[in-house]
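Hi everyone,

Forwarding the result from last night's run.
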Amino acid sequence: MAYYVVPEFDGYVRNNRIIWETAGEMVYLEPYGKDALRFRASKSLRIDEELNWTLQAPERAGHVQIDVDKERARIVNGKITATITGDGTVTYYKTETEEILLQEYWIDGRVHTAPLRRAREYRVTSGDRFQISLYFKEDSGEHFYGMGQDANDCFDLKGSTVELLQKNGKCTIPYLYSSKGYGFIWNNPAVGRAEFVKNHTMWHAQCAKQIDYIVIAGDTPDEINGHFTEITGRAPMLPEWAAGFWQCKLRYETQEELLEVAREYKRRNLPISVIVIDYFHWTMQGEWKFDPEKWPDPKAMVDELNEMGIKLMVSIWPTIDPRSENYAYMMKHNYLLRCEKGVDVVFMFFGPQTYVDTTHPEGQKYFWSRVKKNYYDIGIKTFWLDEAEPEMRPYDYDNVRMYFGNGQEVSNLYCVGYAKAFYDGLKAEKEEVCNLVRCAWLGSQRYGVVLWSGDIASTFDSLRKQLKAGLHVALCGIPWWTTDIGGFINGDPEDEEFRELIVRWFQFGVFCPIFRLHGFRLPYPVRDILNPDGYCGSGGPNEVWSFGERAYRIIADLLALRERLKPYLMKQMKIASKTGRPVMRPLFYDFSKDRETYQIGDEYMFGPDILVAPIVERQAVSRQVYLPAGADWTDAYTGQRIKGGCRIKTDAPLEKIPVFYRDGKNLDLF
């Protein structure tokens, strides 16, 4: 017969920290800033207190109360309370109401027989590294949001699973917001997965030294977000030029081609802030300098663009070819990724490639020194940090060695080191920092990065998914976000369906934090990416006048609309930098008491005063819009006033994106 008796609590308290251990495990439970508790545990019986990864030291907690009796220890830090019982079970509560926020899931805890499952499971991989699984009880009424960027068409993540890894178009930021009123930081860069399913919530790491997470309580999403971004960092102030329109395509092949596009924008009197030189403008991967045959005088190019008031952004890849001039030095000094087994090649793209090891502090500095010499010193001050995952073929994380450790344990950090290398280099020159990046993790925002959603399809299905992905990103500390307007893959400028799509995407793009056009347009060149001596050609045209006269008229109006929107946007960006509050955010962020908003992922707030409802279906000329309770709304086109808490049908011909102002605001945008 199996039965269970809860053992007496046998832990102790030291310096505001509860310490508990049993045969085979040690646990720390302590405050971490305001209204937050940090939990760490390991089977190695040692907690590595230096292993903070990207966490910042938060402000000191307020009055912390800890009491211990025979059955359990209890810790109170402001609005969050936790208990740990004698068997090690941890439960988190709202302090004021004692409502359970989160509770570990132990399956029956039987004695005198094998347990079905423990809440904290460890399986040794080697030494003091483990496969780790952490289980919490499921709550059927709970909704989950965040976790970075994943074009999975899920707004509420409840019922889904999320891989904890980085790929092109898949960006993991392991932070979760719960509709029950807490935030959860999984402070672990290991490859793994999270499950938000009907029978449990589970966090799994393939290789890690310890469990490490933080639970944050608060009364509103904004309050919780403020604590979260205090812990992980906030973006600097967005430069005003970055709020304008960015022109890009794959790819401008020559200096004169790019300059002629910039000149044409000026001839047409169209606003443009940034123009971008994409990849393979270089001599070879890993040399980070212009090909002099196609780009004979890059400094003169930069000077002419500056005279036109246009910033030049240049694509950087951290790939490095064994034939390149920097390879031998960087390999000798261990500045490159290595394979644990076999040849040091993780990516085949116009020949064999490995990557700069951006987790290596000296590797970061050397990488920047090459970029500074060949780009910054001629006046280029903003960069496109592509291939930031890093992309691998195949994704054998366990076969990659980084300075920080094996790829399976630390690879999610690669993108942070990449952004930091350029941030540190630019700040040393006293420059403002605004770089485009394809991947992010906890804390990336403080290094001045614009996250974009990767190489996505040019379809309405893709557009719909990007909207939801952007809302999840907004909750993860990243206020600077964008997509390739029109999608990246397969868009045909001569196709009427694509012309409709790019107009609708431009309408969405106007109301994104960063307004950026990019794409690999048809017709495609013939190329062989496995040929080391192959030529990387360009796709079709991708300027705003490339998609037919009707689309051009609408897009030109949208460029002007963005200019009118910029003062409002810059005001919101100042708030984002100071408080962490995202500019683009889900409806429930501002209207958390309206439970209907937790199900709506195809509308959003753009700052506190503008509700945006993009058209994401082909040939749609109207749509249903939900206007949240707790505010009055004004149709930005007609001036009609509507009381919140209702659904309305609004017209949306191709020339119109549904927009509503809150509480009598009139921003005079249309």
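The first helix runs from residue 221 to 232.

Cheers,
N.
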